[in-house]
Design goal:
The structure is a single chain. The chain has 348 residues and is mostly helical. The chain has one domain. Helix content is 74%, strand content 0%. It binds protoporphyrin IX containing FE (2 copies). The site of one protoporphyrin IX containing FE (HEM) has 27 residues, from α2, α4, α7, α8 and α9. The site of one protoporphyrin IX containing FE has 28 residues, from α2, α4, α7 and α9.
Length: 348
C-alpha cells in the first residue's frame, strides 16, 4: 500500500518525465483491459451456459455508460499495444536506448493517429443506433449484473488471502518464494520473455477482434435482427445457426453463427478466439501479478495472496473460456435468449 501511494505521489511530484508517465499509462491501461477481460470471457461463456445472461451482458455493453467505457477500452488497448511494442523492441536492441524519449513520444502520436479514425467510425455506429430509436436496459439491472462480478472478484481476493494465511501458519512466512518481476530466477526470466513475445502475438489478434466488434459492425449490431454476421458468408443452405444472418436478433445467435462457421471442416473463429483467449489471459494475469506484487513487497502474506489470486483467477478464466469454446449453442438456447431479450427490454 505504501508503495502504491509512493508511486502515485512521486509520479505527480516529478510531473512526469515522459518515461514515467508512459510507465503509469501502460500499467493503468493494462489493468483496465484485464478487468474488462474478466467480465467479457465470463459473459461470452454465458452464451453457452446461461443464454439469457449473455443477452443481458450485450444489452449492458449498449448502455450509454458502457459506450463511454468502450471508447476508453479501445484507447487502453491501442496505447498499451503500441507502448508494449516499444518496450519489446527497445529491450532487444540496447543500442537504441538513447532514443527512449523519442520512442515514447512516437507511441503517443501513433496512438492518436490510430484512435482518431477509429473513434470517428465507432461514433458513426453510435449515431446510427440513436437515430434508429435506441433502447436501453434499465439501470438497476445493470448495477445488479456488475454487483455480481464485484462480489465474485472480492470473494476470490478474500479466498486468496485466506489460503495465503493458512500457508503461512503451516509452512511459515520465512520460506516465502521469491516471486516477482525483479527476482532474477529462471522462472522470472521465462515470464519476462513471455510478456514480450505474447504481447507482439496479441497485437494482430486483438486488433482484428476489435475491428470486427467496433468498425466492421458496432456493438449495437451484435443483437440486431437480420444483420449480417461479420466473418460468416451468407448461405442459403446448411444450419440456420450458421447461415451468416442473425435471424433471431440475439447476441446468442451471433456467437453461434461465428463459432459454427466451418471452412473445410475447421471452426475458424473458435480457433481464433482460443488463441486470443490463451494469450491475453496468461499475459494479462501475469501482468496483474507484476502490479500487485510490486505493491505488496513488505507483506509476505499479501504477496503470496497476490500470486495465488493471479494464478488461480487466470486458470479459472481459461477453463471457463475453453469450456465455452468446446460447447454447443442450439436452437433452444437461442429461444431462451429471445425470451430474455424481450423481458429485459419490456417487450411483449
Ligand atoms: C496488444 C498487445 C500487447 C502488447 C504488445 C503488450 C506488451 C506488454 C509488455 C511489453 C509488458 C511489460 C512486461 C514487463 O514489464 O516485463 C506488458 C505488461 C502488462 N500487460 Fe500487456 N501487452 C499487450 C496486451 C495486453 C492485454 C490484452 C492485457 C490485458 C488482458 C495486458 C495486460 C498487461 C498488464 C496488466 C501488464 C503489467 C503492467 C506493469 O507491470 O506495469 N496486455 N504488456
Ligand atoms: C467492447 C469490445 C468487445 C466486444 C463487443 C467483443 C465481442 C466479442 C464477441 C461477440 C465474442 C464472441 C465470439 C466471437 O464473436 O468471436 C467475443 C469473444 C472473445 N473476446 Fe471479445 N469483444 C470485445 C473486446 C475484447 C477485448 C478487448 C479482448 C481482449 C482483451 C477480447 C477478448 C475476447 C476473447 C478471449 C474471446 C473468446 C472468449 C471465449 O473463448 O470464451 N474481446 N468478443
Amino acid at each position: 500500500m505504501t508503495a502504491l501511494v509512493t508511486t502515485l505521489t512521486e509520479t505527480l511530484r516529478y510531473r512526469g518525465a515522459i518515461g514515467q508517465w508512459s510507465w503509469v499509462l501502460h500499467r493503468v491501461a493494462g489493468l483496465g483491459v484485464v478487468l474488462f477481460l474478466v467480465l467479457h470471457v465470463i459473459g461470452v461463456a454465458y452464451s453457452v451456459f446461461y443464454p439469457g445472461l449473455w443477452e443481458e451482458e450485450v444489452l449492458i455493453y449498449q448502455h450509454p455508460i458502457f459506450t463511454i467505457g468502450e471508447f476508453v477500452l479501445t484507447a487502453c488497448v491501442v496505447y498499451h499495444a503500441l507502448n508494449g511494442l516499444r518496450i519489446s523492441i527497445l529491450d532487444s536492441r540496447p543500442h537504441l536506448w538513447k532514443h527512449q524519449k523519442q520512442a515514447a513520444t512516437y507511441v503517443l502520436l501513433g496512438t492518436l493517429v490510430l484512435l482518431i479514425p477509429t473513434f470517428i467510425l465507432m461514433f458513426g455506429h453510435v449515431l446510427r443506433h440513436y437515430n434508429e430509436g435506441a433502447f436501453f436496459i434499465d439501470f438497476p439491472t445493470l448495477l445488479n449484473a456488475m454487483l455480481r462480478f464485484a462480489i465474485g472478484i472480492a470473494a476470490a481476493a478474500a479466498l486468496a488471502v485466506l489460503a495465503s494465511g493458512l500457508y503461512g501458519l503451516i509452512g511459515g512466512n520465512q520460506k516465502d518464494v521469491s516471486v516477482g518481476k525483479g527476482s532474477g530466477s529462471r522462472m522470472e526470466r521465462f515470464w519476462w520473455s513471455f510478456m514480450r513475445i505474447s504481447g507482439v502475438l496479441i497485437i494482430p489478434l486483438v486488433f482484428g477482434h476489435l475491428a470486427i466488434a467496433h468498425i466492421v459492425q458496432g456493438v449495437f449490431e451484435i443483437n440486431l435482427a437480420s444483420a449480417n454476421i461479420p466473418g460468416v458468408p451468407v448461405s442459403e443452405v446448411g444450419s440456420i445457426l450458421a447461415n451468416g444472418i442473425n435471424n433471431s436478433g440475439t447476441a446468442v445467435e451471433y456467437v453461434a453463427e461465428r463459432w459454427n462457421f466451418l471452412i473445410g471442416g475447421v471452426a475458424l473463429w473458435r480457433i481464433y478466439d482460443a488463441a486470443l483467449l490463451a494469450l491475453v489471459t496468461v499475459h494479462g494475469f501475469n501482468g496483474l501479478r507484476y502490479v500487485i506484487t510490486d505493491y505488496t513487497m513488505s507483506s509476505p502474506l499479501m504477496r503470496r495472496a497476490a500470486v495465488y489470486l493471479c494464478f488461480i483467477g487466470g486458470t479459472a478464466l481459461l477453463v471457463v473460456g475453453v469450456l465455452a469454446l468446446l460447447g454447443t449453442i442450439d436452437t433452444t438456447a437461442v429461444q431462451l435468449a429471445e425470451e430474455a431479450k424481450a423481458h429485459l427490454l419490456g417487450m411483449p
